[in-house]
Amino acid sequence: MSIIKTLKRLPDLCKFNVTFLKSSSQSFNINCGQYSGRIFSRVFSNAVRHHDKDLLLKTGRKETGLYALPVKPKANPLHPRNALFGRNDIDKHGNRSDMFLVEAFSTAEEYRFPDFYKAVSTKPEFEEIKISDELDGEVLAFKLNKSGQNKPSTIFIFREGTTVFWNFDHHDIKNTLQLLRAFEVKSYPDDLVKEENEIMQFTYSEAKPKIIRNIIHITENEYPPLSQYTFSNALALSVKLAIRESSLDYYVDNIKFISEDIRDGKKIKLTQDQVFRKTGELFNLRHHINLSSDLLDTPDFYWDRQELENLFLQTCNYLNTLKRTKVINEKLSHCLELMDLLQRHLSDKHHVRLEWMIIVLIMVEVVFEFLHYFERIVDN
Predict the structure, then answer these.
(1) Residue 162's beta-bridge partner residues?
(2) Backbone phi, then psi, for 126, in 5-degree steps?
(3) Inter-axis angle of helices 113-121 and 170-181, to 10 degrees?
(4) Which residues touch 348 (CB under 8 Å, ≥6 apart)?
(5) Residue 369 region, left (φ>0) first, then alpha (ψ -120 to 50), else beta?
(6) CA–CA distance from 235 to each of 85, 104, 256 (Å)?
(7) What is the per-residue pLDDT across 308-358, written as a single tens digit (0 to 9) for each?
(8) Parallel, antiparallel, or unpaired: how do β-strands 198-204 and 215-218 relate?
(9) What sign for the dihedral angle of Cα 363, 364, 367, 368?
(10) Which are the contacts of 99, defined by CB distance < 8 A and separation ≥ 6?
(11) Which tens digit of pLDDT belongs to each residue from 109-158?
């Protein structure tokens, strides 16, 4: 009786699985048709592409995750830094006695502040500047004591791995970054640090601090230097965002082949585990942008300091920080849509594979039952 029941159920099972296969295939084709074109046309048209994949970074820094990136000059219309002079051009075209440079570098995910503070306290050339008790543990400020300087050199070091130099020369910047390297957590490659930096001109003025014609105007004898800190804070956010933009550009360039495979109807070359890890990279990047930074909101420090808040917002607006944040979030959303599409497709393929395994096992069982049945007939 069990053999007869199994045989009767076999056509229904086969019919069910064939129907399931057809529906899964149709569902995937519909999803690809609806989403793949929209996703990739918007993601990859806005992304910076054509990285040289053969360009490998070989630096003394530890390269991990999304931060071991090849660096190639890119044009970002939302980023005003690309429209400004570089350091050499500023030295050549703006070499005036009343003009100085402010430069921002992001070298790591984080600095170990307690250890760094102990190390720098033993160096007489660094004189600490107290900004505010509210910023303890978040930022360190020092004045560089150097003979022969007509204007002070100030440095702001942010715990999130960013350093802003005011009126520092090449040699002093190099030495300071070398000192910081021992206290970095998840360092970025040197080429990335040099490429994704901010550089502007500044001068001293009797008027209120502001930006006029790409030049920062600050007062010379302000103490504590809150206006200088405000400019530095905005520059630090901008250069950190530039690092995130490069991370996403590199990620997008590495998954470009997926769109081409879907378009050409080729087999997807990623496994479910690989898709899961790539999705995790995207969520990690989104976390750093939206939850672990002040890119989407004004820092609490400015809430009861209206003039500084206006100055901070003016600088962020000049650096297009908010617009760039919206763009990178939209790119992240499209990439996550793609990963979700791939995850569902691979999950459907896995279910189909399980169904076929069940069919094969049932057929094997039926064959063995037939063999046993014929054996009993022969014995009788």
Answers:
(1) 106, 158
(2) -105, 115
(3) 130
(4) 24, 27, 28
(5) alpha
(6) 16, 6, 32
(7) 999 999 999 999 999 999 999 999 999 999 888 888 877 777 777 788 889
(8) parallel
(9) negative
(10) 90, 201, 202, 203, 215
(11) 999 999 999 999 888 889 999 999 999 989 999 999 887 777 889 999 99
204-210 CB contacts, 8 Å cutoff, 24+ apart: 204/98, 204/151, 208/307, 209/311, 210/311, 210/314
Confidence (pTM): 0.70
Q: Which two tokens stand for residue 328?
A: 């990178």
Residue 293 near residue 160, CB atoms below 8 Å: yes
Three-class SS of residue 122?
coil
**Amino acid type, 233:** N
Q: Give the residue carrying structure tokens 């550089």.
A: 199
Do the Cβ atoms of 323 and 78 come closer than 8 Å?
yes
Residue holding tokens 């094969």? 360
Residue 254 pLDDT: 86
Distance CA 210, CA 363 (A): 80
Element at 213 (helix H, strand E): none
What is the per-residue pLDDT across 19-38, written as a single tens digit (0 to 9) for each? 443 444 444 344 444 443 33
> Radius of gyration of the chain from Cα atoms?
30
Give residue 36's region: left, alpha or beta (phi > 0; psi -120 to 50). alpha
